[in-house]
Design a protein that fits this description.
Elements lengths: L7 H18 L6 H8 L3 H7 L3 H20 L9 H18 L1 H10 L4 H14 L1 H12 L8 H8 L1 H11 L7 H15 L3 H5 L2 H6 L1
Helix pairs in contact: 1-2, 1-6, 2-3, 4-7, 5-10, 5-11, 6-10
């Protein structure tokens, strides 16, 4: 009798169990046997889907990136003013982080992956975030957004939400809808040109 073919349900169960254990114990705090028990599958089943632990972690991170992109870009409308587009993306990102606490709590673990994997996955993320790249490019061209690289802009604007969401989930801070509005405004201000930068002349005149 041939082995059962891998199924999407079991793969998802393994991913969910890995995230739960990662959030609680870190990369090296659990065994494959513990993972199998948490996922409700036989230990050998793990290896039908993944070559080893490292392969599992890489595949899980890629899946998280894809889910993150899909959630962030939900309802995106490139016809809206840039700040409205940005606000929608930030709201989507925040709710994704709050609704997926295991992903949010596990982020620090993924940050310690080998540099070559991190670079590859960052490139994969940008491939899916073309609307955000377009927003940044349009913003730079119209002097609404600072002339910084995409990587710097996303570090200043989007990545803080992951940290703040984790702090919120840990009850270190509490963010209600009004505070979220202020946070989004502050993160926009971090990348937006000041009025003098937008005109390109006022800043010079005050220096003279």
């Amino acid at each position: 009798m041939s082995p059962a073919a891998p199924s999407a349900d079991k793969r998802e169960a393994i991913f969910c169990a890995t995230l739960k254990l990662l959030a609680s114990y870190g990369f090296h705090g659990f065994s494959i046997k513990q993972l199998a028990e948490e996922a409700g599958v036989a230990t050998g089943t793990i290896y039908l889907y993944f070559k080893d632990r490292d392969d599992l972690i890489r595949e899980l991170k890629t899946q998280i990136i894809d889910d993150f992109i899909k959630a962030t870009l939900d309802g995106h409308d490139p016809q809206l003013p840039l700040k409205q587009q940005y606000r929608r993306m930030c709201c989507n990102l925040w709710h994704f982080c709050i609704e997926n606490p295991c992903i949010t709590h596990s982020k620090a673990q993924f940050d310690h992956l080998p540099p070559d994997i991190l670079r590859s996955q960052r490139s994969h993320a940008w491939d899916g975030l073309q609307p955000l790249k377009a927003l940044f490019e349009q913003g730079r061209n119209t002097h609404q957004i600072k002339k910084l690289s995409d990587d710097i802009l996303i570090s200043l604007s989007f990545e803080p939400y992951l940290f703040l969401a984790r702090q919120h989930l840990l009850d270190v801070i509490k963010v209600d809808s009004e505070q979220l509005t202020h946070i989004i405004d502050a993160s926009w201000d971090a990348i937006a040109c000041s009025p003098s930068q937008a005109t390109g002349t006022e800043g010079q005149s005050t220096q003279e």
